[in-house]
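User: quick one, sequence for these tokens?
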């Protein structure tokens, strides 16, 4: 998934300017870490951008809604990264 497509998906679910700024910040951090670690900066950036995309619209279902949408689009790696972040939170650890 390229950034323009990710932005369209993000803006269909999120309206809060502060939440959008948060996700943009995480996008930039993830992109920088990917470059440093020799990973795909686009995949990492998109995962950072979308990691809370469903939080505003579906707080009780977060992150399941965005994960399902990404899986339907064939974006399994990004969906897995976002779902893994949530499982770490439940174990008392924070990812990113």
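Assistant:
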């Amino acid at each position: 998934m390229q950034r323009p497509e990710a932005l369209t998906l993000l803006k269909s679910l999120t309206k809060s300017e502060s939440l959008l700024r948060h996700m943009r910040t995480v996008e930039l951090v993830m992109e920088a870490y990917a470059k440093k670690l020799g990973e795909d900066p686009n995949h990492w950036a998109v995962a950072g951008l979308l990691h809370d995309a469903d939080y505003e619209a579906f707080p009780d279902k977060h992150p399941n809604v965005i994960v399902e949408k990404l899986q339907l689009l064939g974006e399994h790696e990004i969906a897995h990264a976002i779902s893994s972040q949530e499982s770490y939170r439940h174990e008392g650890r924070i990812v990113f």
